Amino acid sequence: MYKVLTDCGTAAKDMSDAGSAMQKNLEEAASAAGTLTSQFGPYTSTAGLVGSALGQFMQHWSRDLVYIAKRTSSSLHGADQATRYYMAGDLEHAANAQGEAAKEPKVDMPGRGQTSHRTKGR
Questions:
Q1: InterPro entries from the entry (predicted)?
Q2: Which end of the chain is more exposed for a tag (fewer CB within 10 A), N or C?
Q3: Angle 94-100-103 (CA atoms, 0-180°, nearest 5)?
C-alpha cells in the first residue's frame, strides 16, 4: 500500500511541477506576445490581444488547478493516515481520516474570499 501512496505522491508532485511551469510559461508568452500602443497619445501600452487572451485563460483555469492540487493532497494524506490507522487496528480513527480526506477543499485565490469549488458558480 505504501508503494501505491509513494507512486501517487510522485505523480502528484510531477503534476504540480507541470502546473507551476505552465503558469510561468504563460506569463512569459503573454509578455513576449507584444503590446498595443496608442497612436494618439498619451502614449501608453497595454497587453496585446494574445497576451490578454493568455491572461484570461490563466485567470479562468487557475482556480480549478488549485482545487485539483488541494484535492489530490488531501486524498493522499487521508489515504496515508487511514492506512496507518487500519494497520494498527484502529478502525474508528481510520474511518475518521477517510471522512476528513473526503471533505471539500477550500480554494482561497488572491483578491477573493474563501469559496469551495462547488459554489463558484459552475
A1: DUF6507 (IPR045436)
A2: C
A3: 145
